[in-house]
Design a protein that fits this description.
Blueprint: E1 2-5, H1 10-20, E2 26-29, H2 46-61, E3 65-74, H3 96-106, E4 116-126, E5 132-143, E6 159-161, E7 166-167, H4 173-179, H5 181-195, H6 197-200
Parallel strand pairs: 1-2, 1-3
Antiparallel strand pairs: 3-4, 4-5, 5-6, 6-7
Helix pairs in contact: 1-5, 4-5
Length: 202
């Protein structure tokens, strides 16, 4: 079955393909389908924005659509940047590196004991008949004082994962795919798909 990813993010596409291909699902980007619409992410939660993206692209292509809304929630910042992770710092931050540096500035006076954080991913799979599957995954960690590692993207270089003893950016793609928030959301979605196998076979 072909599923359209409501995103042109190459990193997300790669991660989703790596995991969903195991179920015989073919994931293509909205660009592959000639869709240039940019959903208006005006929700207040990861769940709402994930659904908005999936619904917008599903209506445009008529096929099953999958959308991920994810972000970093930092305890000391009352859960920020959260759903605004990709826009953290406003217009002054135009790149991942700008946003990472802005985060470090915001956290500069926070002691180690209070630098807890988590990455959150909510994935919505929407079928043409209205059937909806929603899965959430979280990966706990803490924010370092400086970037470490050159892999990954976004806030990965400052997100330290205790169970791995390093940052997301110090893991290989395979290692990150095994424990990341998105991997955990996809694992939960995979379980839902197996329970709803009749939809996978259509």
């Amino acid at each position: 079955m072909k599923i359209v990813l409501a995103s042109n993010n190459a990193h997300k596409l790669e991660e989703l393909r790596a995991i969903l291909s195991q179920l015989g699902l073919e994931v293509v980007s909205q660009k592959d389908m000639g869709i240039t619409i940019e959903p208006d992410e005006n929700g207040t939660t990861f769940e709402e924005n994930s659904y908005i993206k999936a619904k917008t692209i599903q209506e445009a292509c008529g096929l099953a659509t999958i959308a991920d809304d994810s972000g970093l929630m930092v305890d000391a910042l009352d859960g920020a940047p959260g759903i605004l992770s990709a826009r953290f710092g406003g217009d002054a931050c135009k790149s991942d590196r700008d946003r990472l540096e802005y985060l470090l500035q915001q956290m500069s006076a926070v002691e180690d004991a209070y630098r807890g954080a988590k990455f959150v991913s909510v994935i919505t799979l929407l079928y043409p008949d209205g059937k909806k599957l929603v899965a959430r995954g979280e990966c706990p960690g803490r924010i370092l004082h400086r970037a470490e590692g050159s892999n990954g993207f976004g806030y990965d270089p400052v997100f330290y994962v205790p169970e791995c003893g390093c940052t997301f950016a110090q893991l290989s793609a395979e290692e990150k795919n095994a424990i990341s928030h998105r991997a955990r959301a996809l694992a939960a979605l995979r379980d839902l798909l197996l329970k709803e196998k009749q939809y996978v076979d259509k």
